[in-house]
Amino acid sequence: MTDDTRPGEPTAGLSRPGDTLGDEGTVSAVVPSIERETVESTGRVGAVAYPYRIVEATVRIPRPLLSDREDRYVLSVDRARRLALRADEVPDVECRTLRDALVVDPELDDAETTEKARETAFEWTLRKYLSAEPPTVTIESAVDAHKLFWLAERPDGDVIVDSVRGTERPLDG
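Above: the chain sequence. Below: its structure as tokens.
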């Protein structure tokens, strides 16, 4: 997470990073398609806020005797699992107040996260295009946000619900 001393850098919007938001706390979050209140449960529904950075990158591939080729990628860097994934678009993000939620600490700091995005865009470009010279990667924009997961108690076992996709899977596996 960045702080106010570095203007222009993305910020996660956490009020208390790495903490359980006991009573209440605020995070910037990807707008969920499934709200916490709508999850079917026999007990309470818990919340976990997972740190991501969504990056738009432009890659310029030099070509001899031709103009440079340009390609664009949207990447989602999972800052807890240190993993970069392809994203279709930059999602809408909102400031969200949560009660009784676990906010997962990022394992990658800001510089490591940006470098992970650059490396991944570079690798994807080399898989797609043949280049005599190395491509240059420019980070056009970056947004830090949390993806919310709902933990629901069910008679046949607890489940974790992805708030954006709406998919469910057993909590134990």
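The CA atoms of residues 5 and 114 lie 18 Å apart.
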